[in-house]
Q: What sequence folds into this?
């Protein structure tokens, strides 16, 4: 009798808890992914200031060069010694990020790269990233970069790519 009552209580609790876990996982995945992008951008800005060199964060499908403009396939951060916006010659690769998990989409109003100058400014790269999952823009995340290079995250994407 006690075992049957315990089993019923566990069953009722499982019916209440399990559906909420899917939403929790999706929310945490979005938060982790937008924070990963934010940390790469903050790192790039700090390296540009520290080394007095141009640093670029760009979309990369192969983890080695600026390839394509689809940010969900990954991105790289590198010193752009020759200021050509591409990994070449003596440029130094600093960090790389693989594709996003969970079929999430990441779009940018700035195009395929964010360029920080030697002062840590991003004058030609100000704009917004939008990160969304299957639930749409309401549950998405936005990351905005100002012309001074400051990046900040906010809830809700403006549009989904």
A:
């Amino acid at each position: 009798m006690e075992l049957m009552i315990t089993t019923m209580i566990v069953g009722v609790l499982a019916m209440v808890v399990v559906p909420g876990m899917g939403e929790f996982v999706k929310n945490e995945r979005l938060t982790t992914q937008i924070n990963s992008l934010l940390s790469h951008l903050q790192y790039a800005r700090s390296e540009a200031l520290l080394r007095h060199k141009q640093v670029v964060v760009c979309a990369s499908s192969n983890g080695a060069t600026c390839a394509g403009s689809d940010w969900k396939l990954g991105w790289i951060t590198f010193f752009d010694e020759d200021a050509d916006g591409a990994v070449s010659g003596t440029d130094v690769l600093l960090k790389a990020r693989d594709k996003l998990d969970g079929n999430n989409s990441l779009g940018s109003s700035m195009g395929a790269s964010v360029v920080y100058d030697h002062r840590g400014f991003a004058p030609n790269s100000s704009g917004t990233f939008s990160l969304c999952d299957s639930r749409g823009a309401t549950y998405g995340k936005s990351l905005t970069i100002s012309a001074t290079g400051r990046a900040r995250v906010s809830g809700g994407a403006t549009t989904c790519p």
